[in-house]
Amino acid sequence: MESIKSHSYEVHLEELAEAALRQHIAKSNYSKVFVLVDENTKKKCLPIFKEKLGERADVILEIQSGENHKNIATCSKVWELLSHHNGDRKSLLLNLGGGVLTDLGGFVASTFKRGIDFINIPTTLLSMVDASIGGKTGVDLGSLKNQIGVINQPQMVLVFPEFLKTLETRQLKSGYSEMLKHGLIMDADYWKGLKEKNEFTDALCIKKSIAIKNDVVIQDPTELGLRKILNFGHTLGHAIESYCLENPERETLLHGEAIAIGMILESYLSHELKGLSKLSVQEVKETFLKHFGRVSFDTADIKAILKLLKYDKKNSHGDVNFVLLQEIGTALTDIKVPHDLFNKAFAYYAE
């Protein structure tokens, strides 16, 4: 399957990924090759990956999985391990894991010795189609999502769909949520076809989602304009994800689950402010509720979630900026939302 070219790197899929990895390591004369894993990818993915890598897995570094470990403390642990094992500026870090690990691993590599090479090998659907693509790296600040980080591109991204066999359905659906987002913001036909699929993990669907995100990133690598559309559903979705993360009495939501809620809410706002049709809003709502079900929020929950909007990374000059849909396949950026519409959006979600 043909690779996808970005400005400074390529995304290789399936058999081309293995060949590209071996060729890159053979020609690059790295002093050491580190592989970053968590307890899940160490057990389920590392044995498979070692066969593809050959002999150059010099040191395995392990962190704990989960969003609650995506923080500076974990970074410090990895920086110390890199130093302990004599990592230098000619070292390579291979990030073998989901979105938490590739975000954190990319940030660690970008800052260790003022920057070493890294390669992302995503093992979850979410990471394959979204998190590992585009060069965004970083960690959370407490429960606040992705507040600390840099944009720095990997040497390459290697996608092996066989890793998806190690995942439970809930994790696969989390990635499916981001794939549906790609259709909503850029490609109405992709949305239409994808939302009817029962099997969405085939390589062609994965490649299509990667291509959509990559095309946006190529046009706007540092998120000055167009790239903001990738945040559709994320303004309220991230606030919901953070709220559930910091409240132990609530079930923690996976990223795609929170963003699915965010996309329903922000579709409603799109109807109220930018003319998205009622039929389209209902289509979005029915599609996501079919796959994710409904989460209950009372008045106190909603108030607390809305307070978290002030930390959104798209904010400017004290304003909360939203990405909304004009129609399915067309997104608009930097939209201000009157506060009274938020409660109406949550009421629509709860209906």
How would you describe the overall organization of this protein?
This protein is α/β, with parallel strands linked by helices and 351 residues long. The protein has two domains: 4-167, Rossmann fold (3-Layer(aba) Sandwich), CATH 3.40.50.1970; 171-350, Dehydroquinate synthase-like, alpha domain, CATH 1.20.1090. The chain is 49% helix and 15% strand. The chain has 14 helices and eleven strands. Helix 6 (125-131) runs parallel beside helix 9, helix 10 packs across helix 11 (255-274) and helix 11 packs across helix 14. The radius of gyration is 20 Å and the shape is globular. The relative contact order is 0.11.
The succession of helices and strands, N to C, reads: EEHEHHEHEHEHEEEHHHHHHHEEH
CATH topology of the largest domain: Dehydroquinate synthase-like, alpha domain
Count up the domains: 2
Strand element count: 11
Q: Any idea what the CATH superfamily of the largest domain is called?
A: Dehydroquinate synthase-like - alpha domain
CA radius of gyration is: 20 Å
Averaged pLDDT:
95
Give the helix level as a range of percent: 40-55%
How is the largest sheet built, in terms of strand order?
Answer: 4-3-5-6
Q: What would the principal axes of the Cα set say about the shape?
A: globular
Distance between the termini: 44 Å
Structural class: alpha/beta
Report the total helices: 14
Main sheet, how many strands, which sense, barrel? 4 strands, parallel
CATH class of the largest domain: Mainly Alpha
What fraction strand?
15-25%
CATH architecture of the largest domain: Up-down Bundle
Q: Give the low-confidence spans.
A: none
